[in-house]
Structure formats: structure tokens, C-alpha cells
Design goal:
globular; two-stranded antiparallel sheet; alpha+beta; about 50% helix; 5-stranded mixed beta sheet
Length: about 350
């Protein structure tokens, strides 16, 4: 996987010690796959190693040591710190849903091929949703176990303990000792499934994160935006990021966003037009996504939601919600995340 991509070396933090405890030589394995041990165990949070090397060293160690749960054992030794600066933004988020959104948007800082996000429950059970860990390429078993295991540990940390995990899906055959997986997750684990998914209570994403701090979160996201280039990032992406940071702090105007991006407003408009959108459309989409998150995943008063999406009053939020979702904010919140209707189809013109 990831023939040319790079992953944070911290993804292998604890590997050498673990392999040593299992009777192997982690340093030799690193040398074999040309992974600098200092990059993994040193103090540089931005050190990178080839993504393919991460997968190969994990799979090779598991095979040579006869340890089918190697990835899970390594996950037991890791937590949010392996995400580097992204961990700060995730841990400062107000809710688990906001933390997941943040991780989904900025996971490229850790590895450009990995993905995480909320999905419908793969078993279709009412009141249950999925948190999926995946990749733009096939996931080797140990990588899937390591990533899903670390995701579980991070969710547990943000939730302040057990969070009602229903079951776990993993996209590979059952290992020789499947009971180890149930012991680690504290829930049933089902193997040979289409994707790696934690099946969680539907209301989990609304739960507050202990220690959430919006000021710290804004600073952390600003750092991510200014220090790490998103692969294939468009002008629209950059405008959207700037708008997201500006919502709720005052009027969102193209002049102020253009200054942040160091271009003339007319130049910015031309770039957006070339990408098939407008500044107004980007702002509207940002407001829609933020409103959806705040309505469905928090209990904030609607007057506060309106202010946080940059609308003057609650009545403006009600009109916008009907245009975006075909329902009032109150009806949306009552229906919950699983009841979000499709946006109304725009009327044809001309």
C-alpha cells in the first residue's frame, strides 16, 4: 500500500520493544526495511517513513513471530500522541462528532492514504452508527488491526471510558486467537467483513469531550492549515478552510478571506469560478455542514447555533434549514442523525 506516500513514523512507536518482548529483533526488522529507528523512537513528531514500509514491517514481524494479533498489541501501546499536532485539535474538540470530523478532515497530516469517518451501521440496526477506519488502498491485516485498535483507544479516551461499543468489523480472516480481539475491544469482533468499523451508539457523536477547548482547537487547526499541505488541495478547499475558521466570529466576507490567502478578491473569484463554484456557495456549504453538526450532535440552543454559523437570528437559521434539509431545526434534532432527510432538489430553471 502507498507505494509513494509517507506516514508519520510515530505510527510504529513501541514496535521495537514489543518485538523484543516476543523474542524478535525490532531494530533488525527496521534496518531490513530501511526504517530509521531514530525517526520512530526520537523526539521529532514530524518524522516520516514510507507507508509501504510500515505495512511490510508489521506483516513480516507478525508472520516471523507467529503473532497474528501483532497490530492489536502495538495499538495497546499507542494513543492520540501518534497523530502529532492533529491530536491537539482532536482532543480539544467540543464533542466526539466534532473530533471525528476534525480527524476525518486532517488525517492526511498523519498519512495521506488513511481515512476515518462516520458511516451508516453496516448491520442496519436502528440507533447504531459506524465509525470506519480505512484507506484509499487495500488494508493489510496488521495495519487494519493497528489503526482500528488505536481508533478504539482514542474514542475511549475522549469519551472518558467505555462508550457502549456494540461490535467490531475487521476486513480480514479470523486469526488463530480471535479471543484476544474480543478481550482488547470488550465487544464481539466479526472478521472477513467489507471494512473496519466500530459499531457504536447512535448518540455517541453528540457526547461532549472532557477537556474540550475551542480556543485551543482553533489554534491547532490554524497550525494544521498553515503547516501541512493537503494532497491535491484546490482553491475551493483553501477557501472552505478559511470560512470554517471564520464562522461565528463576524461577517464572512470575500475580502477578508482573500487577505488570509494573500490574493486579490477578484483573483479569488476567478479561481473559484474555474473550479465551478462561487464564494457565496462555499460559505453556504460551510454553514450547512456546521449547522448540521450543531443541530444533530449538540444540545445548543438554536439561537446559539444561528450565531455560530454566522446568521443574525434564529429565524434565519429556520429558513436556511428548510432550504438545506427540507425540515426545521427542531424537527431535525428530534429525528436525530439517522433521520436526516435528503436536501430538497432545486427547481429546474430555463
Amino acid at each position: 500500500m502507498g507505494t509513494g506516500s509517507l506516514t508519520r513514523a510515530r505510527a510504529l512507536r513501541g514496535f521495537v520493544a514489543l518485538v523484543g518482548e516476543l523474542g524478535g529483533d525490532g531494530a533488525e526488522l527496521f534496518a531490513r526495511f530501511r526504517i530509521p529507528i531514530d525517526a520512530v523512537e526520537g523526539n521529532d513528531p514530524d518524522a516520516l517513513v514510507p507507508t509501504r514500509s510500515v505495512a511490510r514491517v508489521l506483516e513480516t514481524a507478525a508472520a516471523e513471530l507467529g503473532c497474528g494479533d501483532l497490530g492489536l498489541r502495538l495499538a495497546q501501546r499507542q494513543g492520540p500522541e501518534i497523530l502529532g499536532p492533529l491530536a491537539v485539535a482532536v482532543e480539544a474538540s467540543p464533542t466526539l462528532g466534532a473530533a471525528l470530523d476534525c480527524a476525518s478532515r486532517y488525517l492526511y497530516v498523519h498519512s495521506p492514504v488513511l481515512t476515518v469517518g462516520a458511516v451508516p451501521d453496516p448491520e442496519g440496526v436502528p440507533g447504531v452508527t459506524g465509525v470506519a477506519y480505512g484507506s484509499t488502498e487495500p488494508l493489510p491485516p496488521q495495519v487494519a488491526d493497528l489503526g482500528t485498535g488505536v481508533l478504539h483507544r482514542i474514542v475511549s479516551l475522549l469519551a472518558g471510558g467505555p462508550y457502549g461499543l456494540r461490535s467490531v468489523h475487521l476486513p480480514h480472516e479470523a486469526p488463530p486467537a480471535p479471543e484476544r480481539f474480543r478481550e482488547f475491544f470488550g465487544a464481539e469482533v466479526r472478521f472477513d467483513r467489507p471494512a473496519a468499523v466500530l459499531r457504536v451508539p447512535g448518540d455517541l457523536l453528540r457526547r461532549p469531550v472532557a477537556g474540550g477547548d475551542e480556543t485551543v482547537r482553533v489554534i491547532a487547526i490554524e497550525y494544521l492549515e498553515t503547516h501541512f499541505a493537503r494532497p491535491g488541495r484546490t482553491v475551493t478547499d483553501r477557501v472552505r478552510a478559511a470560512v470554517d475558521r471564520s464562522l461565528g466570529t463576524g461577517p464572512v466576507r470575500i475580502g477578508s478571506v482573500a487577505r488570509l490567502l494573500r490574493v486579490h478578491p477578484r483573483t479569488l473569484q476567478r479561481h473559484l469560478a474555474a473550479e465551478g463554484t462561487t464564494f457565496e456557495a462555499v460559505v453556504d456549504e460551510a454553514r450547512r455542514d456546521t449547522a448540521e453538526r450543531l443541530i444533530l450532535r449538540t444540545d445548543l440552543p438554536f439561537t446559539q447555533v444561528a450565531a455560530m454559523v454566522g446568521l443574525a437570528e434564529q429565524s434565519a437559521l429556520s429558513r436556511a434549514a428548510r432550504r438545506w434539509f427540507g425540515e426545521s431545526p427542531r424537527a431535525l434534532r428530534r429525528a436525530g442523525p439517522g433521520g436526516l432527510p435528503a436536501p430538497p432538489v432545486p427547481a429546474a430553471h430555463g
